Every structure is written in structure tokens, then in C-alpha cells.
């Protein structure tokens, strides 16, 4: 069964990852009994982490300020923004402690 990326447990996990990396500047992130190293991307030195949620691999990636997205605009204004991907698809973004799930658009 695939992981539920809209569950409160997922929200708790990504908020914890976001807080540990972008607020506390942690070099390792702890989720439950597991610990994961924080790496930096080669080109832009952005924080990056690979972890598991309900058996699904998740990548957390600090927002690149140099893109044209609305998330990059927020980050340039001082917001702390981290994108979360699974299987190459964006599943959520956390900015300033708030979560947006991709695919939430209504209408």
C-alpha cells in the first residue's frame, strides 16, 4: 500500500524535517528512531535529505532562490522553503511552518 502523503503523520514528519534543517541548521535529522544525514547539492549548496515515510523514499530539498517559481519568490523574501518529492514527483512544500500538498487545487 502506498504511503499517505496527506496524513497527519506525513505532515508531522515533513514539518520536523523542515524545522531541523532550515530552523535548527541540523547536520542530521532524526525521525522516530531513524537518523538521516543532511547533504548539500553540488551546484547551489542547497540542503537536501533522503528519508523514508511508511516505506516510501522521500527527498526534501531546500528551495533554489534562482528559479522563477512562487516558492522561490517567497524564499527570496526571507521565507524558509523546502520541497518534498517522492518517486520524482513533488508531493508537498513547507514554508514558514505551513504545509501545502501538491494536487490540492480545487475547481
Looking at this protein, list some descriptive labels.
6-stranded antiparallel sheet; 107 residues; alpha+beta; 21% helix; 38% strand; 2 helices
In brief:
The protein has 107 residues and is an alpha+beta fold.
Note the topology.
Layout: H1 8-23, E1 28-31, E2 34-37, E3 39-40, E4 47-53, E5 56-62, H2 70-76, E6 81-86, E7 89-95, E8 98-101
Antiparallel strand pairs: 1-2, 3-4, 4-5, 5-6, 6-7, 7-8
Could you please describe the fold and organization of this structure?
This protein has 107 residues and is α+β, with helices and mostly antiparallel strands. The protein has helices at 8-23, 70-76; strands at 28-31, 34-37, 39-40, 47-53, 56-62, 81-86, 89-95, 98-101. The strands form two sheets. The protein has a six-stranded antiparallel β-sheet. A two-stranded antiparallel ribbon has the order 1-2. β4 (47-53) and β5 (56-62) form a beta hairpin.
Amino acid at each position: 500500500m502506498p504511503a499517505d502523503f496527506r496524513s497527519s503523520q506525513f505532515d508531522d514528519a515533513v514539518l520536523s524535517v523542515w524545522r531541523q534543517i532550515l530552523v535548527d541548521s541540523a547536520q542530521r535529522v532524526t525521525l522516530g528512531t531513524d537518523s538521516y544525514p543532511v547533504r548539500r547539492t553540488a551546484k547551489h549548496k542547497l540542503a537536501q535529505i533522503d528519508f523514508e515515510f511508511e516505506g516510501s523514499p522521500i527527498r526534501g530539498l531546500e528551495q533554489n532562490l534562482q528559479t522563477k517559481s512562487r516558492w522561490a519568490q517567497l524564499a527570496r523574501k526571507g521565507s524558509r522553503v523546502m520541497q518534498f518529492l517522492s518517486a520524482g514527483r513533488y508531493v508537498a512544500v513547507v514554508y514558514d511552518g505551513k504545509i501545502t500538498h501538491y494536487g490540492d487545487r480545487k475547481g
